[in-house]
Prior knowledge:
- By secondary structure, the chain is an alpha+beta fold.
- It is built from nine helices and nine strands.
- Strand 7 and strand 8 form a beta hairpin.
Amino acid sequence: MDKLKVKIEEELRGIHGRIGLAIEIGPESFYVNSEGVFQSASLIKVPILIEGFRQSEIGELSVDQLVSIANHVGGSGVLQVFSSEAQLTWKDLLTLMITVSDNTATNMLIDRLGMEAINSSFGKMGLQHTSLNRKMMDFEAIKQGLDNFTSPLDILTCLKVIQEGPYLSEESQAAALKIMSYQQFQDRLPGMMDLGKVFVANKTGSLLHVEHDCAVITYKGKTAYTAVLMDRLDDVYTGKQKINRIGKHIYDYLLEES
């Protein structure tokens, strides 16, 4: 993994901003400011996805129940243009929350799952620096100093919960991973990969001066868990490009090593 580390370190030089990353490939790992606390942006939707499936497993959420679309908010997603007569299942909302980062779907899920239950689940998963303190597009909460936070290592833990381990059943893991594999925002970590060769399940996050991406990247039985978080960026376009190139280096490494 030394060659990969050198290439990524080269990418990180000269960025005007703060960077945190965590990469684990089998027994090998590479961390930079991996426990640094960042505004989560839409990465917070990954542990919310996990909590949705956990509550489904214990019978607190019926994922097949139809619900009317309520409390439309702007930003990313498509539900903001749906009529209030539209009905979708909770699983549809989980899917839209991830694949198109839908903020209306996310807020409906926060209301349904409960903010307190979601935050409690973070601790049960072993997350150290992740907290949900506001809903999506709640600018009043931001003015009051309330925001959502996470760290690269916490996001890596979430990816591993979805791929392995006992926290979710195998059925829930497969469903969550499938949803993430239909991600529509692929201009960061997967942007320079041949997605016909590797399996990628990712989730991005963006705010002013903030660019994140995390992914489960699998090739021939070898999995790279990856989380790259950037904030205080002078130029978010450069940040996106750097995340893109980091993804390409991981992709090249997996193909070379397998």
